[in-house]
Write a structure and sequence with these properties.
about 260 residues; alpha+beta; 7-stranded antiparallel beta sheet; rod-shaped
């Protein structure tokens, strides 16, 4: 039987086909062999391959080659340990990238957990605290707790009170100003540790307009300034100073009278 016309790929498969009768696993090679398995040319090729294989089997292997192969040299590549794998630049780069992504994710998660209504305004006011000098405020020397009535009578600001934890501290001055969002903010400068107080409206719900409440004291920090914030009656109070949380913690942890 005459050899059918084959493509270049099919000819390659036919020339590489096994010469025994075992099942060919590759589908493309099996299809190519099926087309030519009854031809005289393919039969001659198989007979030639079998003869060469039989001749090779009869050739003795020199003792030097046998000893060389028995040692496993170049027969199997040595297994790489995990320490060698870690020294691979590609593995190191992937590890560093994953570590950075994980660190960013953890930082974002911590920030999200520490977020509270009014936190953005509080951080913005910490920037104000770092740039304002006491000479810019009206001189008012009294106990901080007495300024709630002052803000109500002079500026018509209800509930702008200083919490009991900070009410006994002496003041140097105060002022009321409008922030960039048009909110009325009261600022108080104190003698102790150059501390500053800020009293401002609590964040409002966009749909209902109601104040968004939160309980307890919450910390914020910005440009090496730290503040501790509390919300009452729809108004937020923040005590701020240049320092860290440990500088403010004694004030909010002391027992109330």
């Amino acid at each position: 039987m005459k050899m059918p016309r084959l493509s270049r790929r099919q000819r390659m498969f036919v020339q590489c086909a096994p010469f025994n009768e075992e099942r060919i696993r590759d589908r493309a090679m099996r299809a190519a062999v099926f087309r030519v398995h009854k031809t005289d040319e393919f039969a001659n090729q198989r007979e030639f391959d079998r003869a060469v294989a039989a001749l090779v089997q009869t050739v003795p292997i020199p003792e030097g080659v046998t000893a060389w192969l028995s040692k496993g040299i170049y027969v199997a590549a040595p297994k790489r340990t995990w320490k060698q794998a870690l020294r691979n630049p590609a593995v190191l780069a992937i590890g560093i990238a994953v570590s950075v992504i994980a660190a960013i994710f953890v930082m974002k998660l911590i920030e999200r957990m520490n977020e509270f209504p009014g936190g953005t305004t509080a951080r913005r006011l910490l920037t104000v605290a770092s740039s304002v000098h006491s000479l810019m405020l009206d001189p008012v020397k009294t106990d901080a707790g007495a300024l709630g009535d002052y803000f109500f009578m002079k500026h018509r600001l209800p509930h702008y009170d200083v919490p009991p934890e900070f009410a006994d501290l002496r003041t140097l001055g105060c002022r009321v100003f409008d922030d960039e969002e048009g909110q009325r903010v009261a600022q108080i400068w104190l003698i102790e540790k150059h501390m500053q107080f800020f009293i401002f409206p609590a964040e409002r719900d966009l749909k209902t307009g109601a104040a968004r409440h939160f309980s307890g004291w919450r910390y914020v920090d910005q440009y090496r300034w730290t503040g501790v914030v509390q919300e009452r009656n729809g108004v937020c109070f923040m005590a701020a100073l240049r320092g860290s949380e440990k500088d403010l913690a004694p004030y909010i942890s002391k027992p109330k009278d």
